[in-house]
Design brief:
- Helices cover 78% and strands 0% of the residues.
- It is mainly α.
- 30% of the residues are buried.
Length: 311
C-alpha cells in the first residue's frame, strides 16, 4: 500500500510542476505587460523589468519561481495591489470561494438525492420523466447561464435576491451564486442516485428485507439508500473540484469577491504573479482531491491498487 501511495504522490507532484510550467509559459507569451502605464518611458519599464527579474531568461525565472513556491512565496502583485504578497492577497478570496462552493455543493447534493430517490421510486412515471428533464437541464446548461438568469429574473425583476455581492448582507448575497452552482451537482447526483437506487431496489437483498415485513420507509432509508450512497460518494470529489473551478464566471456575474473574480481581474490587468497563483491554487485543489480519491479507491477496493501497481 505504501508503494502505491508514494507512486500516486510523486505523479501528483510531477503533474503540478507540469501545470506550473505550462502556466508560466503561457503568460510569458501573453501579449501586453504588467507595466502598461502610458506615462512610463521605455527606460523606466526596463528598470521595472530588472527590479522584478522579468528581464532574465525564461528557465531562470521559472526555476526561481518554483523554488519560491516550495517556500510558500507566490511573489508580489504588479498591478492589483502593488508590491503586496500574493499569498496574503488570495487568502480572503479563497475562503469566500470555498464557502460559496461548499454551500452550492451541499444544496445540490441534497436536491439531487431527493430527485434521484423520487425518480427511482416512481420509475417509468411522469415523476421520473420530470426529474430526468431537470437533471438533463442541469448537466446541459452551464452554471453561468443559470447565474445570468437568476440575476436578471429573480434578482432584477423580482428583487428577491441581491444582484451584486454586498458585504453588509453576506448570506443573502450568497443565495444567487449558491443556486447557480448547485444545478450541476444536483443533476449529477440525481442521475447517479436514480440509476443506483433502481438497481438496489430490484436486488434480492431488498426483496428479502421486504419479505420480512419491514416498512417501506425503513427499507428505503436504512437499506436501499445506504447501498446507493457508496458509489455516489466516489463521484463527490471530482464534482466538488469542478464546482470550485467552475465558480469563476459565476462569481464574476454576482460580483462575489472570490478567487475566481480575482483571477479574471488579474488576467485583464496582466498581473502575472496573481494569475499564476490563482490558476495554480485551482490546479492544486483538483490534483489533491483526485489524489485523495485515488488513494481511497485503493483502500476500498484492493483490485484497483493491484491493477495500477501492475501498470
Amino acid at each position: 500500500m505504501s508503494k502505491y501511495v508514494l507512486k500516486r504522490v510523486l505523479i501528483s507532484i510531477l503533474t503540478l510542476l507540469a501545470i506550473l510550467f505550462v502556466l508560466f509559459l503561457m503568460l510569458d507569451y501573453m501579449p501586453g505587460s504588467p507595466f502598461n502605464d502610458e506615462k512610463l518611458t521605455a527606460a523606466q519599464k526596463a528598470l521595472l523589468y530588472a527590479k522584478y527579474g522579468l528581464d532574465q531568461p525564461f528557465f531562470i525565472r521559472f526555476g526561481k519561481y518554483v523554488g519560491a513556491v516550495l517556500r510558500g512565496d507566490l511573489g508580489f502583485s504588479y498591478v492589483l495591489n502593488k508590491n503586496k504578497a500574493v499569498a496574503d492577497m488570495i487568502k480572503g478570496p479563497l475562503v469566500v470561494s470555498l464557502k460559496v462552493g461548499a454551500m452550492g455543493m451541499l444544496l445540490g447534493t441534497a436536491l439531487g438525492l431527493l430527485l434521484g430517490i423520487a425518480a427511482a421510486l416512481k420509475h417509468n412515471t411522469w415523476v421520473d420523466t420530470l426529474c430526468s428533464v431537470v437533471s438533463i437541464l442541469g448537466v446541459s446548461v452551464p452554471s453561468y447561464v443559470f447565474a445570468l438568469l437568476l440575476a436578471y429574473f429573480v434578482g432584477f425583476k423580482l428583487g428577491w435576491i441581491p444582484i451584486l455581492y454586498s458585504s453588509k448582507n453576506v448570506l443573502r448575497s450568497f443565495i444567487g451564486p449558491m443556486l447557480a452552482l448547485a444545478m450541476s451537482p444536483m443533476a449529477s447526483v440525481s442521475r447517479f442516485t436514480r440509476s443506483e437506487m433502481i438497481d438496489v431496489l430490484g436486488s434480492d437483498y431488498i426483496q428479502l428485507v421486504e419479505s420480512k415485513g419491514v416498512r417501506q420507509n425503513n427499507v428505503i432509508l436504512k437499506h436501499a439508500l445506504r447501498n446507493t450512497l457508496i458509489p455516489i460518494i466516489t463521484i463527490m470529489g471530482p464534482i466538488l473540484v469542478n464546482l470550485l473551478t467552475g465558480s469563476m464566471v459565476v462569481e464574476k456575474v454576482f460580483g462575489v469577491p472570490g478567487i475566481g473574480t480575482m483571477m479574471v481581474t488579474a488576467i485583464q490587468s496582466n498581473d502575472y504573479n496573481v494569475t499564476i497563483a490563482c490558476a495554480f491554487v485551482y490546479s492544486a485543489m483538483y490534483i489533491v482531491m483526485m489524489l485523495i480519491i485515488d488513494i481511497l479507491y485503493g483502500i476500498i477496493d484492493p483490485r484497483i491498487r493491484v491493477a495500477k501497481e501492475g501498470s
